[in-house]
Amino acid sequence: MKWITRERPKIDRLACPWLIRRFIDPQAEIIYVPENEVLRQANVLGATPFDIPGVEFTHYDDQCTFDYFIKKYELKDPALSIIAPIVRGADTDDHTLALQSSGLWAISAGLAYNTKDDKELLEKGMLIYDALYSWATHLHKEKHTQSPTEHLLLQIYKTYISNKGERKTKVPAWTKELKNLIQDHIDTNLNFNLKIASEELDVNPAYLSREFSRYFDNLSFGEYIRKLRIEKAIQLLESSDDTLAEIAYLTGFSDQSHFNRVFKAHTDQTPSEYRKFVRKSKGNTKR
Predict the structure, then answer these.
(1) pLDDT tens track, the chain, 287 positions
(2) Helices (H), 93-243
(3) Is the pTM of this model over 0.70?
(4) CB 33 within 8 A of CB 51
(5) Which domains does the chain have, with CATH numbers?
C-alpha cells in the first residue's frame, strides 16, 4: 500500500510511517511531496494521503494523526499508549502532555536539519521510533542511576536521613540541584511538580515536601514555583512585546485567566495594569 504526505517530515510524518510499517503494513511505501502536490499525486499514484487537512488520516480536535492511526486500526499495544502522548505533545507543541515530548521534538528537528533527503530522514526516524518503542515496552519504569553524580546524590540523601535527629548546620547538597532543576523546567515551560522533582533527585517525595520550605524562602513547593513564575512573568511584561496569553503560556499557567488571578494575588495588579504602569514609568524617564 502507498501512503503520501508533505515533504520535510519531523514528528507526525515520521511517527505515522513507523506505525504503518511496524503494525499495519510492513511493505508500505511512504511518499513525500510538496504540500500542494499531495492530493494530486495521491490520485495519480493511488496512494492514501495523511497528515494534511481535509483527508481521513489527519488531526482531530487535540489529537494528532498518530492518534488517529491507532484508533482507526484498533492497535492495543500498551507501549503505543505510552508513545502516543509523547508524539502528540511534540507535534502540537504541548510539552506538558509528556516529559519526553520536548526531547522528541528537539531530536526530530535536529535530525531534519541535518538530513536533507526525506527517504534517508525516514530511515533514521525509524531507528528513533524503534528505540522509543523499546523504551516504552521494556524500560519506561527504569531510572538512570549509573552516573557518579546520581550515586553521590543518593549517598548524600541517605546520610542526611540517617542523621535527621541532629541539628543541621549546612544546607543539603540536593537543594542546589533542585534549584537548578526547577529553573530548567521553568525556563522551558515544562509541567514540573514535586513527584517529578523527587524522581529526578532520587529523593523520597514525602521527605522532600517536608524539608523543602527550610531551604526555599520558607515557602512550600507550590508557593515557590508560583513565585518564580510570577518573577519570570514580570520580566517578560517589562522586556517583551508578547501578548498576555503568550506570557501565560511561557510561564506555565493553564490559561490567561489563571495567570491574571495568580499575578494579581501576588502583586495587587493585573498583568495588564502592571504592563501599563511599567510603560508609563519608562515614558516618564525619557523626558
Answers:
(1) 999 999 999 999 999 999 999 999 999 999 999 999 999 999 999 999 999 999 999 999 989 999 999 999 999 999 999 999 999 999 998 888 888 999 999 999 999 999 999 999 999 999 999 999 999 999 888 766 555 555 565 566 556 655 555 544 567 777 777 766 665 555 444 456 777 777 777 778 787 788 888 888 888 877 888 888 888 889 989 988 888 988 887 887 767 888 888 899 889 999 999 999 888 887 755 44
(2) 101-114, 118-134, 148-162, 173-187, 194-201, 205-215, 221-239
(3) no
(4) no
(5) 2-139 (no CATH), 149-214 (no CATH), 224-285 (1.10.10.60)
